[in-house]
Structures are given as structure tokens and as C-alpha cells.
Amino acid sequence: xxxxxxxxxxxxxxxxxxxxxxxxxPLADVRVLERPPSAAELAGELADGVDVVLGQLVDPFxxxxxxxxxxxxxAVCLYAVGFSNVDTxxxxxxNVVVTNTPDVLTDxxxxxxxxxxxxxxxxxLDGDREVRAGRFTGWRPDLLLGRRMHGSVLGLxxxxxxxxxxxxxxxxFGMRVRCTRRPGATDxxxxxxxxxxxxxxxxxxxxxxxxxxxxxxxxxxxxxxxTHHLVDGAALAAMKRSAIVINTARGPVVDExxxxxxxxxxxxxxxxxxxxxxxPRLAPGLxxxxxxxxxxxxxxxxxxxxxxxxxLCARNAVHALAGTLPPQAVNPDAWGGQxxxxxxxxGRVPR
Length: 351
Ligand code: DGY
Prior knowledge:
Blueprint: E1 9-12, H1 20-24, E2 29-32, H2 39-47, E3 52-55, H3 63-69, E4 75-78, H4 88-93, E5 97-99, H5 106-121, H6 124-132, E6 153-157, H7 161-172, E7 176-180, E8 202-204, H8 207-213, E9 216-219, H9 233-237, E10 244-247, H10 256-264, E11 270-273, E12 292-294, H11 303-322
Parallel strand pairs: 1-2, 1-3, 3-4, 4-5, 6-7, 6-9, 7-8, 9-10, 10-11, 11-12
Helix pairs in contact: 2-3, 5-7
The structure holds (2R)-2,3-dihydroxypropanoic acid.
């Protein structure tokens, strides 16, 4: 330790579950914000001399905010897999490594997508309301008839980890599964072969064909300029009138005003949403649109997974403090790798 050495400073923009505090507190001075910061507040916090920030998907890590952290800020460790709220190009320019929490939330998010398919298709919330309101007067042949999963066509937009996990579940339900791997992407590099257990069981089709042939469209793409409003009025109009849309990805992938119009005018039959274009606000009328189930962004919200996310996020932060490239870096080129001699940071990552 040099004479001027100090403990690293770590900022959490929201309290994280165990084991994050247990991992971080022995190593750094940890400050936890009590409410989500605005861009100006976050910039002010970072300008105060933060070495690593553990952020949420709602935090605006804009170019200006990242600049405010320079030159001391080494890493933005997100407690989320999606990182569309971070200007990663600006982060790379500022030598700030950005990390996320992939894999650990795949199964829970896939479960929730299937739960939404069932909830919309089998009208689960309508049934719950009937019973609670005392309107269930006994079995009837025509009561709350819904759509079956078995035999219907699931269209997956995006076929990464979560899309594949949804495919496995859907196949177990007897659905016919189709996918378009990178709708909206400009990248034309050939995609890797389908995983062995899905090859021959999932049919790859182009985006227009996916839209026109599916009974359920489930979205599993990252939010990028190419996927912003991927599902717009024209896409909805290309779908079957009986189709439903499931979104557990990011709200702006769907043009929410166009979705409300499509639901209200019978262009499609329903939607199960966990994410919104302007969270937590809803597009006008969405809460009254027929055939909808609306959840408050809980795709990864199980105790088990949130703990795993907290651990991954904190371990990425410790790597950054220790001067080793964090394993879940999404912009590894930004990493200079140099140990900061002015910090009493750990020389190795504790187990
Ligand atoms: C994520 O991690 O990106 C999810 O949207 C929330 O867990």
C-alpha cells in the first residue's frame, strides 16, 4: 500500500440482496442510494470519486454520466442481463468496463414467458376475477374458453439463451416452434448452428414468415436501434387475428401505442407483457385493452435468481477493483487492466 492509498469507493444505486453486501463491504467503502437517481444525480455521485458502480436497468448511464465518472470510474456492473440503458460506446471510450448478469436468469425469464402465454391463452386472470367476484355459479360448457398451447405455433423473435429456453419449454407443451434468430439486425454473419437438442425440432424462418404463421409471438431480442419498435403497426397487421404477443425482453421492442390500437380493434387477440416502452408508465389505454395480462417487470424475480444476480454483479465489481477483467464484461476492449496503485483494492478476487 502506498502512503496515499485509500479504500476503493463503490456505489450501489439500489440495495442488492445477499451476498453482494457480504462480498463488497470488507473490500470497499460502499454507498447505497435510497432511490433511483436521475441522470444529474448519478453524474454528481460519480463525480464524487467512485471506482465501481453497481447499477440497475433503470439507471441512465449516458455518455455525460460516464464522463462525470472519469478518470477514476473503472466499471459499471449492472444487476441485469439487458444493458440498453448503458451507452457502451461511451463507456469504452472512457475505459469503463460494463458487466451484466447473463445465464443465471435464463430459466426464470423463460418460465415467465410461458406463464404469460398460459395466462393470456387460458384467460387465467379473467377466471380469477370471476371467482373472487362471486360470479362462479358452477361449471358451464362455454365458460371462459381459451386457446390451447398444444399444436399451436410459437414464433420466437431472437434465439439466444432465453429464446432457446422458451423453445425447450414450448416443445414440452407440444407446441410447434419456429424462430427468427436476429430480426432487425444488420449483422449478416452466419449464425451458429442450432444447439444439438433443438436442431430438427425448431424451424428457422424469416421475420415476415414468422409473423404471419405464429399463434404466439414471444420476443427475446436485446433492445438495439435495429429492434426498437420491431413489433410496430405493420408487424401486428401481418399477424393472425387470433395471435398473441408476449414481451419479457424490453418494452421499446414493441410500439406500445400500435399494440393498444391492434388489441382494441381486433388486429390481434391478446398480449402478455412484463416490460413497457416507458416504464413504469403504460401507453394510454393499455390497461383497458382486451386480452391482456400485465406484469411489473418480474422476469427474473425469484429469490434464487436475484441472489445469483447479486453474487455475479458483486464478483464482477471485485474483479474490476482487483485489476482483473470482470468475467461478464460486455465491452472487454475497454479494459485497461492496470492495477490502481492508489487503492487498497484486493489483489485477488475472494472466493
Ligand atoms: C434483465 O436482467 O435484463 C431483466 O430485464 C430483469 O432482471
